[in-house]
């Protein structure tokens, strides 16, 4: 790489970041470049995991873009994967010089150069877990994961993640495929993450929070659901995280999808105290209104979670008909009055959120607006706020269960 090529960091500023992403992706051939990450990921999640962007310039013209993904964290030093995309396909780049210049910008952090256009190595693994073959995907299976995304969510090509991220070279934080009779039927992948939302002091004594996993996407083909495959994928993810001495796995989820809540809170024993209104810039069949999301926190090293993962029992769903004393914050899409001293509360969510969006979009909008207000007002990990810890139902009505934060609850969740 000639010395007159400049490398400039791109500032991730809240007010202009979305436009910058759109411009970069267009420069790199979106929507037809299958090696690009989806726009909603780059806009919302990439900055949250500690990702950074550098632009390679020659004579004040962009000739390449590098996306820096968290890779390692050792002795307080950050390591990144530099995912390099050419604007000028004829550009010959000196990788060592590129690494040196990027390291200078980062203050000496470790950088591994990665070109998605070059041939990559895949390490296929297979292990039998509760009747399902789970492991890292091979090269063909990595491509099949793209197809699964399109089948499960009817996703357009530009909103599907690149296949090469499952290579050993890229070092995705989680890369798992579930197989039945040798055929991929589900997957789970995510990325390493530097830091995250601030945790209560009680948890910081037990959990290493500087280096985490951000579990980005989990999917199972419709005809193979209700077999525990999603649970098994998360179980292996947790086991692998612990092997790397990672205590915290985060992900985002639509709080109004009750089926997801059953898995996340009722079975995995994850919790939620972060809330992001209108998190993703996308619209599809599952997201026809504002894409608000819970930020999930999964304390994988705690006894509470480990006991849940070792159990073969079904998810815990509280019968609120028997616990009628638990106050409801809302009745359908209408808010109710909450007594300030309530230790446990129930927040109603639609029984079938996807169907409601397709059947009555106006009512879906009201639901989202109401629950946006509720979650923003009540959720948090500070004393007096509420943490979502479970799910419940009262006949056909579905609820999220939230507990008021005090020292006893924080200790219990971190056991």
In short:
The protein is α+β, with helices and mostly antiparallel strands. The chain is 28% helix and 32% strand.
Gross CATH architecture of the largest domain: 3-Layer(aba) Sandwich
CATH class of the largest domain: Alpha Beta
Side-by-side strand order of the widest sheet:
6-7-8-9-10-11-13-12
Number of helices: 11
Instruction: Note the beta-strand portion.
Output: 25-35%
Distance between the termini: 53 Å
- Succession of helices and strands: EHHEEEHEEEHEEHEHEHEEHEEEEHHEEH
**Class derived from helix and strand content:** alpha+beta
Q: How confident is the prediction overall: mean pLDDT? A: 92
Largest sheet: 8 strands, mixed
- The backbone outline, from C-alpha atoms, is globular
Poorly predicted regions are none
Written overview of the protein:
The protein has helices at residues 17-27, 39-48, 95-106, 139-153, 201-204, 229-243, 258-267, 303-310, 353-359, 361-378, 407-413; strands spanning 6-10, 52-58, 61-74, 77-86, 110-114, 127-129, 132-135, 174-180, 183-194, 211-220, 248-253, 271-280, 291-299, 317-319, 330-331, 334-335, 344-349, 386-394, 397-404. The protein has 415 residues and is of the alpha+beta class. An eight-stranded mixed sheet has the order 6-7-8-9-10-11-13-12, sandwiched between helices. A five-stranded mixed sheet has the order 1-2-3-4-5, covered by helices on one side. It has three domains: 6-114, Aminopeptidase, CATH 3.40.630.30; 127-310, Gcn5-related N-acetyltransferase (GNAT) (Aminopeptidase, 3-Layer(aba) Sandwich), CATH 3.40.630.30; 317-404, no CATH class. The protein contains eleven helices and 19 strands.
């Amino acid at each position: 790489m000639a010395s007159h090529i400049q490398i400039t960091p791109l500032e991730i500023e809240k007010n202009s970041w979305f436009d910058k992403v759109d411009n970069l992706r267009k420069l790199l051939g979106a929507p037809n470049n299958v090696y690009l990450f989806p726009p909603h990921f780059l806009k919302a999640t990439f900055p949250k995991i500690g990702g950074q962007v550098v632009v390679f310039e020659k004579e004040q013209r962009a000739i390449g873009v590098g996306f820096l993904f968290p890779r390692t964290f050792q002795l307080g030093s950050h390591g990144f994967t530099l995912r390099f995309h050419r604007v000028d396909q004829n550009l010959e780049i000196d990788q060592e010089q590129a690494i040196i210049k990027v390291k200078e910008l980062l203050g000496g952090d470790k950088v591994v150069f990665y070109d998605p256009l070059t041939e990559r190595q895949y390490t296929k693994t297979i292990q039998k877990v509760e009747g399902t073959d789970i492991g890292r995907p091979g090269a063909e299976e990595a491509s099949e994961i793209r197809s699964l995304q399109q089948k499960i969510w009817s996703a357009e090509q530009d909103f599907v993640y690149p296949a090469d991220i499952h290579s050993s070279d890229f070092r995705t934080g989680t890369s798992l495929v579930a197989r039945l009779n040798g055929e991929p039927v589900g997957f789970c992948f995510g990325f390493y993450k530097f830091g995250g939302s601030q945790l209560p002091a009680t948890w910081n004594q037990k959990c290493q929070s500087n280096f985490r996993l951000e579990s980005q996407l989990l999917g199972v083909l419709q005809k193979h659901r209700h077999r525990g495959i999603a649970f098994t994928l998360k179980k292996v993810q947790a086991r692998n995280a612990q092997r790397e001495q990672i205590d915290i796995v985060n992900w985002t989820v639509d709080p109004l999808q009750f089926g997801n809540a059953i898995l996340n809170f009722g079975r995995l024993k994850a919790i939620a105290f972060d809330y992001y209104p209108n998190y993703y810039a996308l619209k599809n069949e599952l997201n026809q209104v504002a894409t608000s999301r819970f930020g999930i926190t999964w304390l994988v090293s705690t006894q509470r979670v480990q006991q849940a993962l070792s159990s073969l029992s079904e998810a815990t769903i509280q019968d609120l008909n028997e616990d009628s004393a638990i106050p409801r914050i809302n009745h359908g899409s209408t808010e109710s009055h909450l007594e300030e001293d309530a230790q446990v509360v129930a927040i109603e969510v639609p029984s079938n959120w996807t169907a409601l969006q397709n059947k009555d979009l106006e009512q879906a909008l009201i639901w989202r607006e109401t629950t946006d207000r509720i979650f923003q007002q009540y959720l948090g990990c500070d004393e007096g706020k509420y943490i979502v810890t479970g799910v419940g139902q009262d006949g056909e009505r579905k609820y999220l269960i939230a507990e008021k934060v005090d020292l006893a609850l924080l200790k219990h969740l971190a056991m």
